[in-house]
Design a protein that fits this description.
By secondary structure, the chain is of the alpha/beta class. Helices cover 33% and strands 23% of the residues. A 6-stranded parallel beta sheet has the order 11-10-12-13-9-14, with helices on both faces. A hairpin with a 5-residue loop joins strand 5 and strand 6. Helix 12 runs antiparallel to helix 15. The longest helix has 19 residues.
């Protein structure tokens, strides 16, 4: 649908729609960024056919020229437009600017047959001047019938054909000119650009996160529930920074030594200790204990240790536990529901309900595959999740993985350090099928290497070792080692939810046609 505001141009457009010349093309409103006589120009209508090109300038409403030779055009609303240049000179200048653009693009077009005319669809224009000829004019008389309009166009075309000795154009030439003037293209946003845009959107705190920080300031004991990507680790770090700055001896802890190593990289301040509970000696005392990934420590042994090292104990002391009790429970160790209930009775509760990590396409696929109920995303747009059938056996799976890695790094300009390969089955034996050269380009995430995070190389991890961490691009392998049980489902949930922007999943032949059917009945 073409939208045309000018009523005069609408009349010409409607007449051209009925023009009985199927090999001709009409372009409306051709903008000329480079103009010979002014900053820019615009051709109202351009007709293209094998016999040449015609530039049409359209002037509607009342037209008059005053004693100073100013052209005054009055539209149907009574508004006047004054021009020192006649519409014939406008059409002439636009025509020559168009010729220059065409010749600059393709020298063979320098002998094109080109002409111009002016249409006055609302008036009878029977004035004479050396500036124009009657053949160059289309007016209300020519608009009276379809045949009279076509006669007027052919009169204009014949006039210019008699003035120029140029060969007819081929149909291919007409198509090329149209493509040059109105190029058709489809350029999608590159993965590199999408990743950068997504990073920008994840920096700011959400309203819900500010609310939780306020609650932590006002309450001594809190359990904060949130799914993957809701900012639990971020809030744990921020609360640890604030309590340490207030002069309180603070312990920030987690079950995973790798996650503890990551947290140490993020924050190092006086008064703050970051370590696993097991590494803390029994005689050490803290004013505040903050637990990240608390579902992994939701057992009697770990809570007893926290009770021992808190200066006022678990009942009266100051503590905060950040956890995902739904989809990340039991991945590391079973959750003791009795221990959790005792803690809940002695604390306030908060819930994070905004996903700040994953894009909508990733969240949609996590829900479809695992059945998890994820929070609403802060980031709506992003690349689609890519599933690839990799056939049977580790060798084929790794070959497909390597091909994908090379593509996104070389063609999409994703940095190697922005990519992590996660083994959903917690088995890194897939790396044995890499060539020695490629294996040297991949660094395994462990308690020693995490001190260098983020890596410069592609990283490899398991669902368990990478829990609590994230990266821009995640490739998931090892689905053939997953079972139809809740633990495997939760491992898959962890693996998929590590991706901020880009997610690729290797689907082995043994896994079946429908990934979402695997854990549907759990």
């Amino acid at each position: 649908m073409v939208e045309i505001e000018s009523s005069a141009e609408k009349k010409i457009f409607n007449a051209l729609e009925k023009f009985d010349k199927p090999d001709w093309v009409c372009l409306h409103s051709v903008f000329l960024a480079e103009h010979d006589y002014q900053r820019s120009g615009e051709i109202d209508f351009l007709l293209l056919g094998t016999q040449g090109l015609l530039v049409l300038e359209i002037k509607g409403g009342r037209v008059r020229v005053d004693e100073k030779h100013i052209w005054i055009h009055t539209n149907r609303f009574g508004q006047e437009t004054r021009r020192g240049k006649s519409p014939f000179k406008q059409a002439h200048d636009n025509m020559h600017s168009l010729i220059n653009d065409l010749v600059a693009y393709k020298k063979e077009w320098r002998n094109l047959r080109v002409g111009y005319g002016v249409a006055f669809p609302d008036i009878v224009f029977d004035f004479e001047s050396p500036e124009w000829t009657v053949e160059q004019v289309l007016d209300a008389k020519d608009m009276s019938t379809r045949q009279s309009f076509e006669d007027g166009i052919f009169k204009l075309l014949t006039y210019w054909s008699n003035k120029q000795f140029a060969p007819d154009l081929e149909i291919d030439d007409v198509d090329q000119i149209v493509e040059f003037l109105r190029p058709r293209f489809d350029r999608v946003i590159s993965l590199r650009t999408q990743i950068d845009q997504i990073k920008e959107q994840t920096h700011d705190l959400t309203h819900e996160q500010y609310r939780v920080l306020d609650m932590l300031q006002m309450n001594q004991r809190m359990i904060c529930q949130g799914g993957a990507g809701t900012g639990k680790s971020f809030l744990a770090l921020e609360f640890a920074r604030r309590t340490s700055a207030a002069g309180k001896r603070t312990l920030l802890t987690a079950h995973s030594q790798i996650l503890v190593g990551f947290l140490k990289r993020q924050l190092a301040v006086d008064g703050l200790t970051i370590s696993t509970v097991d590494e803390v000696i029994d005689s050490e005392k803290f004013d505040v204990v903050i637990v990240d990934e608390g579902q992994d420590l939701m057992n009697q042994l770990a809570v007893s240790k926290i009770d021992q090292i808190l200066s006022r104990g678990i009942e009266s002391g100051e503590w905060a536990i950040f956890l995902d009790i739904n989809s990340q429970a039991d991945v590391v160790s079973p959750v003791d529901s009795e221990v959790l209930e005792r803690l809940k009775k002695n604390s306030v509760h908060a819930k994070l309900d905004r996903n700040c990590r994953n894009t909508m396409p990733i969240i949609t696929q996590i829900q479809a595959v695992t059945g998890a109920d994820l929070e609403d995303p802060k980031i709506a747009l992003g690349p689609l999740v890519e599933y690839e059938d990799v056939g049977q056996g580790r060798e084929n799976e790794v070959a497909s993985l390597v091909a994908w890695l090379r593509r996104v790094v070389r063609s999409e300009r994703v940095k190697p350090g922005e990519i992590t390969v996660v083994a959903a089955d917690n088995d890194l034996s897939w790396m044995e099928f890499l060539s020695p050269a490629f294996r040297n380009e991949i660094e395994v995430v462990d308690r020693e290497s995490i001190s260098k995070w983020p890596f410069d190389h592609i990283s490899a991890a398991t669902s368990i070792s990478f829990k609590g961490l994230e990266n821009d691009a995640i490739a998931i392998v090892g689905l053939s080692g997953l079972a139809a049980d809740s633990i495997s489902r939760n491992q898959m949930y962890v693996a998929m939810s590590r991706a901020r922007a880009l997610l690729w999943v290797a689907i082995p032949a043994s896994f079946g046609d429908d990934l979402s059917e695997k854990w549907k009945l759990i």
